[in-house]
Amino acid sequence: MSLVDDNDPRALAEQLTRAHELIRTHLEEVVAHQPQIQTVEYDAEIPRWYVRFGCDSRDAATIYFDLHQRSLHYELYFLPDSGRNQLELYHFLLSRNHNLYGASFSLGPDGDTYLTGRIALEHLSARELDRIIGVLYEITEQWFSLIVQMAYRLADNSDS
Question: What is the pLDDT of residue 1?
């Protein structure tokens, strides 16, 4: 994809159409057939794609891909808010963000933990979609078990 004049609504619409088709084709015709992928679905009302993959560290995880006018946003629901050990957990997550590429840990409005990222449509390609899926898969496999243990470990305090 090439850079698009932000002042040309027709060019933006064409870029969005090309991005939609690229995402649809790659996710439904290539990614869906990979061994770790459990399902690829599309919800036209949002519009949002769901890519669910199996993990060793958890049963499954789902990446949500949301196409916007100039970018593709993606997120993976990582962990509910445990209400425990938050300072330690947040410190750990922010420390991990320092070395992550293409995604970062974030807190949603609900207080739950997500992996999130976005890519400008002019940089979107099948290779980038594969990289995004791979990064989210790798982070989940590498950190999920440890973060769950950290989040749900009883807080060390002397009054318990």
Answer: 39
